[in-house]
Amino acid sequence: MNLPESYIPILIQAGVAIGFVAVSLLGAHFLGPKQKKGNSVKNQSWECGVPVEGNARTPFSIKYFLTAVLFVLFDIEIVFFYPYAVNFREFGMEGFLAVLTFVAIFFMAFFYVWKRGALDWDK
């Protein structure tokens, strides 16, 4: 099998990545702490001496995750405003129109999410 020379670094990188994962998993399995079976006091959940209330496996509402994703999405939007804010004079009218288009698309997405009720916690 003849591989082009440009594939060799890719294969080396993939081999190193797979090797690192394998060594990490095997090392954690063999060198990590061993869990004792059973229901001893040592294996029970605790939080600063406060008695446990409820189950830790209680599912969260999908609204929580949707709100988190929307926050990240609209928060990342701010990152794209920084280069414009620093160089707005150099961008001129063309840059201003590009930013207006960018903001318009995000406002359309925001109003769509708002109309769909994704921001209403009570539902």
Automatic annotation (TrEMBL):
The source's superkingdom equals: Bacteria
Q: Does the keyword Cell membrane apply?
A: yes
Record's bilayer topology term: Multi-pass membrane protein
Quote the Pfam families the UniProt record gives: Oxidored_q4 (PF00507)
Q: Which residues cross the membrane?
A: 6-32, 64-84, 96-114
Going by the UniProt record, its keywords in alphabetical order are: Cell membrane, Membrane, NAD, Quinone, Translocase, Transmembrane, Transmembrane helix, Transport
- Is ATP-binding among the key words of this record? no
Which Gene Ontology MF annotations are present? NADH dehydrogenase (quinone) (non-electrogenic) activity; NADH dehydrogenase (ubiquinone) activity; quinone binding
Gene3D superfamilies the UniProt entry points to: NADH:ubiquinone/plastoquinone oxidoreductase, chain 3 (1.20.58.1610)
**Reaction equation(s) it catalyzes:** a quinone + NADH + 5 H(+)(in) = a quinol + NAD(+) + 4 H(+)(out)
Stored PANTHER family = NADH-QUINONE OXIDOREDUCTASE SUBUNIT A, NADH-UBIQUINONE OXIDOREDUCTASE CHAIN 3
Q: Record's family?
A: Belongs to the complex I subunit 3 family.
The record's function comment reads:
NDH-1 shuttles electrons from NADH, via FMN and iron-sulfur (Fe-S) centers, to quinones in the respiratory chain. The immediate electron acceptor for the enzyme in this species is believed to be a menaquinone. Couples the redox reaction to proton translocation (for every two electrons transferred, four hydrogen ions are translocated across the cytoplasmic membrane), and thus conserves the redox energy in a proton gradient.
HAMAP family found in the cross-reference section: NDH1_NuoA (MF_01394)
- What does the subunit section of this Swiss-Prot or TrEMBL entry state? NDH-1 is composed of 14 different subunits. Subunits NuoA, H, J, K, L, M, N constitute the membrane sector of the complex.
Protein name as catalogued: NADH-quinone oxidoreductase subunit A
- This protein's encoding gene: nuoA
